[in-house]
Amino acid sequence: MKLGLTGSIGMGKSTVAAMFAAQGVPVFDADAAVHRLQGPEGALVAEIETHFPGTTSARGVDRGALAERVLAAPEALRRLEALVHPAVARERESFLAANAAAPLVVLDIPLLFEKEGWRDVDRIAVVSAPAAVQRDRVLARPGMTEEKFARILAQQLPDAEKRARADFVIDTGGSLEQTRDSVRRIVACLSEPGNS
């Protein structure tokens, strides 16, 4: 059973992914894969430097510099995605092969709906929180501005639409224990015979 986990920026997806892992569920974290691929020894660093000169160093890709280059330029963003997405897909396939015997795996995919990743999973869980909570979380991040937040949101499917398309909605607007309970219920539900 492949459970796709997604949610807009600032909704708490990383926290929820860690809760699934704490329940013993193997989790593939697409963001972590991107960080590895763009890190000091990352397989994508040279290619990214070729396409976006000046955005890398000995420490790997400067994600802030790269974001500034592509967020306001749709064509540049498409070129970057053409490099990153196939590399992440290969990492995901390796993860699935390594966990083939697991009854349930979680695929933490940031743009699950936007990039057609929903086609590759059996069920979908969307992490959601009230808009005011989301905004406060995102604007508290270093280097984040209202303008940057607005640009990121414009590229993501609205939260209400994600929730409407989900099999499970995990509300992170309450306490951590409430969120943890939601995760436990989903794991129990998907572990029942007949739900795969």
Automatic annotation (TrEMBL):
It is found in: Cytoplasm. One of its GO terms (biological process) is coenzyme A biosynthetic process. Belongs to the CoaE family. GO terms for cellular component: cytoplasm. It catalyses: 3'-dephospho-CoA + ATP = ADP + CoA + H(+). ATP binds at residues 10-15. This is Dephospho-CoA kinase. HAMAP family: Dephospho_CoA_kinase. Keywords: ATP-binding, Coenzyme A biosynthesis, Cytoplasm, Kinase, Nucleotide-binding, Transferase. It comes from the Bacteria. Catalyzes the phosphorylation of the 3'-hydroxyl group of dephosphocoenzyme A to form coenzyme A. GO terms for molecular function: ATP binding; dephospho-CoA kinase activity. Its EC number is 2.7.1.24. Its main location: cytoplasm. CDD domains: DPCK. It is an enzyme of class 2 (transferase). It comes from Sphingomonas parva. Pathway: Cofactor biosynthesis; coenzyme A biosynthesis; CoA from (R)-pantothenate: step 5/5. InterPro entries: Depp_CoAkinase (IPR001977), P-loop_NTPase (IPR027417).
